[in-house]
Amino acid sequence: MAKYRALFAFFAFVFIAGFFTAELRPQSRGSRSEGAVSASFDYYVLSLSWAPEFCAQVNAAAGNPQECAPGAHAGFIVHGLWPEAATGRSPESCGGKTKPKPVPKSVVNVVLRDMLSPGLIQHEWETHGACSGLNPFDYFSAIVQVRAAVQIPVQITSIEDETRESPGQIETQFAEANPTFPRTAFRTACPRGELQEERICFDKNLKPRACGSSLSECNIEAVRIRPRS
Questions:
Q1: Which residues, listed in sequence order, are joined to residue 84 by a DSSP beta bridge?
Q2: pTM
Q3: Is the Cα torsion angle 144, 61, 74, 195 positive or negative in sign?
Q4: What pLDDT digit, counting tens, does each position of 56-94 carry?
Q5: Three-state DSSP state, 45
Q6: How is 46-112 classified by DSSP, letter by letter?
Q7: HSE (side-chain half, CA atoms, 13 Å) at 121
Q8: Alpha-carbon gap, residue 78 to 50, rounded angstroms
Q9: Cβ(199)–Cβ(149) under 8 Å?
Q10: CA 97, CA 99: separation in Å to the nearest integer?
Q11: Residue 226 to residue 69: CA distance in whole angstroms
Q12: How many angstroms separate the CA atoms of 74 and 168, rounded?
């Protein structure tokens, strides 16, 4: 009888352990969470914001101390990972009037190194991430994965004085720093003639791909690039 009781206790332990392991395991890629919508899109755009330009804006430092504090020396910071349509309007704010639940703190902590601002993380989830059909863990894991895949060209991060380069030069530098990417995977964003962002295109499997014609291009001759502070 004692032998059977011991076997029963063992199998009960295995069952309970398996149950809690399943409960704690992160959802697999492609699974949804409350507030996430599988919107129609064709690929992703990783947006890298050039911190010196962002921090030059009025009041930027007050709301973003980790990025903009004196001596922070920040360079390219992840702005977001955007579902992009090949034609027409790309999806945004797919939850409509019902905002998705806030990103869990444990997920925020994972991606904070790349995005630096909890407020930005929540904003990007509401505006773009919830359109992906992924849960927060998988969406922000994707951000960490694609950011780690991109090498930043030293020609930009090492400048010591304000300089000017053509959008083509900037994109060529990124392409040369990432030789396994298509050369057309890079787009420069330059409102007001200043380097604001570099955008890199990935397919839904997070492999680099050429950017589509719907993604805007910088068409001026020379872009102003501020040095890191």
A1: 43
A2: 0.83
A3: positive
A4: 988 887 778 889 988 888 999 999 999 999 988 999 999
A5: strand
A6: EEEEEHHHHHTSTTHHHH-HHHHSTT----EEEEEEEEE-SSSPPP--TTTTSPPPPPPHHHHHHHH
A7: 25
A8: 9
A9: no
A10: 6
A11: 16
A12: 23
